[in-house]
Amino acid sequence: MPALPGSCYCQAIRYTITLDNPESDARTSICHCGNCKNFTGGNYGITTKIPKSSFKITQGQDHIKVHEADNGSGVELHREFCGTCGGSLLEYGANAGNFIYIFYGTMEDHTRGQLEPKGEFFCMMRDPWMPEIQGLFHKEKIKE
């Protein structure tokens, strides 16, 4: 499969994702948790889980900045973003293993079309005016 491109907002950082099979190698999810809302400034976060080995920075490595913080549940969360425009690129937590979560909006339009959402998480925290997205897997919360 051809490489799927993406970038930060100002395009100082560019990347590619190479997947053998996007249907089985990637999972795009919508998250309604407070942490995602706060970080994205929206009513949900949307990321695509991919193997770390499928992600490659092709331009702007020196622009990447890292922020690490507790996500509110005692889990360290690592986020990478552009030091020029502030645009987020990816995140992963201590339990992510060999996976990273690419911020969906950083992918080019034709890439996003190949990696549509499969599920919604923390649905119990979905804003009351936002309807459930039909046809997706729904999980009220991750753990007690």
What secondary-structure arrangement, pairings included, does this model have?
Elements: E1 4-7, E2 14-17, H1 22-25, E3 27-31, H2 34-40, E4 45-51, E5 55-59, E6 64-70, E7 76-82, E8 88-93, E9 99-103, H3 109-112, E10 117-121, E11 137-138
Parallel strand pairs: 3-10, 10-11
Antiparallel strand pairs: 1-2, 2-5, 3-4, 4-9, 6-7, 7-8, 8-9
Comma- or semicolon-separated keywords:
mainly beta; globular; Metal Binding Protein, Guanine Nucleotide Exchange Factor, Chain A; zinc; metal-binding; Mss4-like_sf; eight-stranded mixed β-sheet; 144 residues; three-stranded antiparallel β-sheet
Tell me about this structure.
The radius of gyration is 15 Å and the shape is globular. The longest helix is centred in the first third of the chain and has 7 residues, at 34-40. By secondary structure, it is mainly beta. The chain has a single domain (4-138), classed as Metal Binding Protein, Guanine Nucleotide Exchange Factor, Chain A, CATH 2.170.150. The protein has an eight-stranded mixed β-sheet. Strands 1-2-5 form a three-stranded antiparallel β-sheet, with no helix packed on it. A hairpin with a 5-residue loop joins strand 6 and strand 7 (76-82). The protein has helices at residues 22-25, 34-40, 109-112, and strands spanning 4-7, 14-17, 27-31, 45-51, 55-59, 64-70, 76-82, 88-93, 99-103, 117-121, 137-138. One of its GO terms (molecular function) is metal ion binding.
Query: What low-confidence regions span 5 or more consecutive residues with pLDDT below 50?
Result: none
The radius of gyration computed from the alpha-carbon positions, rounded to a whole number of angstroms, is 15 Å
Which CATH architecture?
A: Beta Complex
Oligomer: single chain
Counting helices, strands and paired strands, the structural category is mainly beta
Shape: globular
First-residue to last-residue Cα separation: 39 Å
CATH topology: Metal Binding Protein, Guanine Nucleotide Exchange Factor, Chain A
Mean pLDDT: 91
Family: Belongs to the Gfa family.
Protein name: Mss4-like protein
Keywords: Lyase, Metal-binding, Zinc
GO molecular function, one term: carbon-sulfur lyase activity
